[in-house]
Amino acid sequence: MQFPLARLLTGLLAAACLPALANEAVIRKSIAERMPNAPKIDEVKPSPMPGLWEIRIGNEIRYMDPTGAFLIEGELIDLKAKKNLTEERVNQINRVDFGTLPFKDAVVWKSGNGKRRIAVFADPNCGYCKRFEASLQELKDVTVYTFLLPILGGDSPEKSRAIWCAKDRIGAWQGWMLRSEAPPKAAANCDSTAIDRNLALSRKIHVSGTPAILLEDGNRIPGAVGAVELERRLQLLAAPASKS
Q1: The organism sits in which domain of life (predicted)?
Q2: Which of 120, 122, 126, 234 has most Cβ atoms within 10 angstroms of its Cβ?
Q3: What Cα–Cα distance (Å) separates residue 42 from each residue in 24, 55, 62, 197?
Q4: Nearest-angstrom CA–CA distance, 211 and 129
């Protein structure tokens, strides 16, 4: 049997949720009516700023007032804490559980003991990917998982398939990316469905450009960086473990 006080508290909690639900409904209705061609809204929730609501579309963030009349495109900055709250939220959305990546679908190579791990989504026709591959050669003790992602058009799908189907995938990949050596033509019976799975994975985790670099803590680097910056990021990852 529920006591009166407990019933009262339950009622108060339910009442407290009503404005939030009402505002979400109002906002969703407003977007549907005023922006009928807008992409699907994945999430509507209060933002860190009182009175402002966060609208999430995939991994993109927008803001709205509680009535759904005003849409704001931009970044929300906490001046007191000196934090870019929009950037933090996007990083949170983009975070990936590194251990769940399908490494069997990647071209894998390592240097030294390979204890530091990096995943890269790369298109063989991406100039920035080639530059990043060269930077990776300067690092020590890394394992690199490269997920072939032919999204740039042209002969990217054919090159990706040829590299994946090569007897020496590492040699074919690095030969093309570092020395512009064309990979051998893929056999007609080669199973290259891993590339299709990579494309599906990229859509799932919101990878839309190359190179996309995933670190072991689940965070990503959106674009090519030099060896010095990448080494700095890897050392930051290792720092907490070394202090414990």
Answers
A1: Bacteria
A2: 122
A3: 12, 8, 12, 23
A4: 5
pTM, 2 dp: 0.76
Task: For residues 150 and 198, give the distance between their C-alpha atoms in angstroms, rounded to a whole number.
Answer: 9
User: Looking at the DSSP assignment, which residues form a beta bridge with residue 56?
Assistant: 43, 61
Q: Answer with the residue of higher pLDDT: 21 or 226.
A: 226
* 88-97, 161-170, 173-182, 189-198, range with the lowest pLDDT: 88-97
Strands (E), 79-164: 83-84, 107-111, 116-122, 142-148
**Burial grade of 144 (CB within 10 A; 0-12, 13-18, 19 or more):** buried
Q: Are 48 and 80 in contact (CB under 8 A)?
A: no
Q: What is the pLDDT of residues 125-169, one digit of tens each?
A: 999 999 999 999 999 999 999 999 999 989 999 999 999 999 999
